[in-house]
Amino acid sequence: MSRLRPIVVGNWKMNGLKSSVAEFSRITEGYDIGLRAKTDLAICPPFTLLSTFAVVALGSRVLIGGQDCHRSPSGAHTGDVSAEMIADTGATHVIVGHSERRADDLDTNAVVHAKARAARRAGLIAILCIGESEAERDGGKTLEVLETQLAASVPDGATADNLIIAYEPIWAIGSGRTPTLDEIAEAHAHIRHQLVLRFGDEGEDMRILYGGSVKPSNASDILAVENVNGALVGGASLRAVDFLGIAHSYP
Ligand SMILES: O=C[C@H](O)COP(=O)(O)O
Q1: What digits encode the pLDDT tens for the residues 32-69?
Q2: For this structure, is 168 an active site residue?
Q3: Atom of ligand 1 at shortest distance to CA of 213?
Q4: Which of 51, 65, 131, 141 could crosslink 168 through cysteines, CB 3.0-4.6 Å?
């Protein structure tokens, strides 16, 4: 097992109303001393719930993150939210480059790069997502795609304290399908290699999460794979029992 302290992150995507505080409270209550000894735990709710969740999380050590940020600290960007605003809620993390934003909002690698820099500027830890499409996997291009995304979207000067990589094969997100454990190991080893080539020893300490159809029934196998330092969980993070079940899967 990796020596790096794992982190299990829940991405609530566009889900959650004020009434969801009860479910989030169950997560904070379930993050007991036994679980804290195993793993960090974070929830990234929609922007509308960030401040509320940050208050509910106080004292629980559950971490809070945004799901995206604008590259600028403030200004005329209607509808956008800056990294500084996210940090101001008490959040510590922000997801950048999720494939849904790369697809829906045309976030290129250059844009993701700028957002990761913005996260650092605001003192947030960026959870930077990369991953191949099904056509790219079928075409044998997975490792090449990951390499290109890493080179173009991870900023210089990134450290293990301000950057987490999340490997999410696009075809595995919300589909119930996952790569084989060998395929996950291969992708994570490649990401680790690229990080070490670029950042030296610092690259050894950067956490690499797996995301895509993680659930309580497959978490223990996936989380045991070499260089998998945690998970980015979508659908299964919406219910405390499932999310805590995944976090408990660590040996
Ligand atoms: O950010 C989370 C990922 O997109 C994974 O979503 P999923 O667990 O619903 O497949």
Answers
A1: 999 999 999 999 999 999 999 999 999 999 999 999 99
A2: yes
A3: 10
A4: 131
